[in-house]
Each structure stands twice: as C-alpha cells, then as structure tokens.
Amino acid sequence: MSLTLNLLLLFLLVLSHDAESGSIVKFLPGFEGPLPFELETGYIGVGEEEELQIFYYFIKSEKNPKEDPLLLWLSGGPGCSSITGLLYENGPVTLKLDPHNEDFPSMVSTTYSWTKVANVLFVDQPVGTGFSYKRTPILDQTSSKTEIVRIHEFLEKWLVEHPEFLPNPFYVGGDSYSGMIVPALVHKISKDNYLCCKPPINLQGYVLGNPITDFAFDDNYSFPYAYGMALISDELYESLKRTCKGSYDINPRNTKCLKHFEEFRKCTDRIYVQHILFPICDDVTSPLCWVYKESLAGHWANNERVREALQTKQGSIGKWVRCTNLDSYKQDIISSIPYHMNNSLNGYRSLIYSGDHDFVVPFLATQAWIRSLNYPIIDDWRPWLINDQIAGYTRTYANKMTFATVKGGGHTAEYKPDESFIMFQRWISGQPL
C-alpha cells in the first residue's frame, strides 16, 4: 500500500476519532518554576463505546524528539500506577524524601531520566489503576490477554492523535509483572502490522526489568538464590533439594518437604524481598524507610491542585493508590517464554536486566529461562563498567537479546536509577553495554 494512501487513511481516522485529546502541563505543584521538559497528559478511550478511559503521561525526548525512539512504559502489579516509573524509576522528576508539612511534597529534577534519549509514554493500566477509570459502573473482569488487546488499541489511537511519532523507532518497556504483558504485546503489534489497512508501528524491540516470566522458573529459583545470598544454611538447602525436589510448588502430603519449607520461611520472612539489603519497616511514614516514598506519592497524587494540574477528570476515581488490588484480574498467561521465542524469530531486539538483590524474581530464574531459548552466545559473560567501576554483568545472544545484571539493584530500576539509565542509554543507541 502506498505511503499516500496510508496517510489518507490516517487522516480519516483522526477525523473520526472522538477520544479526549491530551493537554500540555507546564507546571506541577511541588516543582519550582516551569517544567524543564514537555509533559502531556490525557485519556484515550478503549472498548466498543470507549467506556474505558486510560490515562497517560507523555514526555518528549530532551534530545531529538522527532527522531529519538518512542518507548511505551508499563508498570507491573498488575495494577501499579505508571507514576511508579515516572517518579521513581526513569522519569525526569522525583519527589524529595524529606519530611514535609505541606499538602504535597517537593519535586526535583533527576539525572537519570530515560527521556534524555527517548520519548516516553507512561500508561496507567489496567483500568482501575492510577487515574484510569471506566465510564460505566459495570464490573470489568479483565485478564492479561484482554489487557494486551486493550493496550494495543490504546497505542493505535494514541498514534492517531500523534501521527508525527509513527516514523520513530518504537519500543515497549516495563518491569515486574509487565514481563507477562510486554512480550505478548510486542507479538501482537508485530502480527497486526501486516494487517490492512493501518499505518504500521515502527516496532524495533523491547526492554524488561526483573520480569515475571514463567511461574515455575521464577518461584523455583528462590531456594538456590537464598542459598547463594547466605540467607539459608548449606544443610537446609540440601534438604530442600532432596525432599522438595527443587520445586517451590509444595505438595501438602510431602511432610518432610513441608517441614524444611517452614524452616526456609522462618529464615526469609523478615527479608524485604524487593531488595534483600533493605530493612522491613514497621512505620512506612518514616523518611528512613524505603517505602516512605509510597506515602509521599499518595500525598502528592491525592492533592486537588495536583489533579487539576495533571488535568484528570474530576470525580473519576476516589483515593489514588500506587498499586491497586484488582480482585477480578485473571492471570491467564502462565509463561511468556513462547512470546520471547516468537519475537526473537521476528528479529526484534530485547534487553532483559535484573537487579541482583531482588528476591521477587531472582536473577537466577531470569538466566534460566533465557538459557531455555537455546540461542548461541555471541558476547560471553563480562562486567559492564561506569567510570571504570563494575556496574553489573552482561551477556549477549544471537537472537539480539542482551541480558544484564545491575550490581546492587533490586526489583525495579528505582534502587539503581543512574546505572539503569546508562545501561538503557547504551543499549537503545546500539552500543555494547
């Protein structure tokens, strides 16, 4: 199909599309002065009657937005707001962790924003997460597979409203539970790019941090990880291997395994699983507590001045929370490994990275499922450096997949944001880590 006909179809779609357009946000409460970057917020309606309103934050690249990649960023959960990424992982502003007496905390610029090299589209999904909402009161029973269809619809409609970004190299990114969504979404985008009659998305690859990928791999490597990190004894580890046969899925009739598993739990119950070196906090409102930032985000996002600045729809949601408990959400993708395989066969690049102090998805589990793909190694295990210091280790495979650890990192990029940014910057530009 000719480029002229594609553009004509795109123009007709723009004319017929009735979703609410985004708006530019120039000031945010808590940040002194005008924002030093271009922020757009808005809703895109999905569903037959656009009853589901998906909220997004879009930040243009600070380098060259016309040519730099467009990255769609999905937070995990499922049900964690994209503010998680925007304010704590890879966005251009963050909340100061100092105690505050005002209705909202202060904001400061970051040094590690991925928007220095890419246009980033942060999305609150599924509906019920963050500021996304549904127009009708009916119960929305969604699932991982359903969300992939909805996010794809969101993306197509967003690009209709922003056609200038259609030529940009496109990537999908996320962490944690997004490991179940992103590979399948990449597969769907790739497949639908061949259908008539929409302009194709310039899909190039994807990036995932500490991704939940396959429950068997992710869970079963908790034992060897705990052993390797000196959380359990030699004897207990050997007993777990012998009696539980290396499986975290405990058979209740296996009394010996149950006994050893209970010992394992006693040794690890007081470990902060997102980063094993950090303490568990009894008082999450203390600035000395790592998760204090969650209470700060709540203070900020629930302030009426902030909601007005972000131009959210008044009365669309009640109290904002960082992660929503989606009781009706069905996790109907058990393993995303087949999607990784399909994406590799289609030639897409991928960066898979692991904070090496994450107990939720141990790096051993991620290495194991990558090995199961059976792709040849083209750049073997080596350290990657920042200022002549080891920032982690990396290995590259023949299927255009790069695996990297972030030394001292946890479950998400927020634990080592500067190092994570440099890693992403090198990879997205095609440089070796």
UniProtKB/TrEMBL annotation:
The keyword Transmembrane helix does not apply. GO terms for biological process: secondary metabolic process. Residues 1-21 form the signal peptide. Keywords: Disulfide bond, Glycoprotein, Signal. One of its GO terms (molecular function) is sinapoyltransferase activity. InterPro entries: AB_hydrolase_fold, Peptidase_S10. Belongs to the peptidase S10 family. This is Serine carboxypeptidase-like 9. It comes from Cardamine amara subsp. amara.
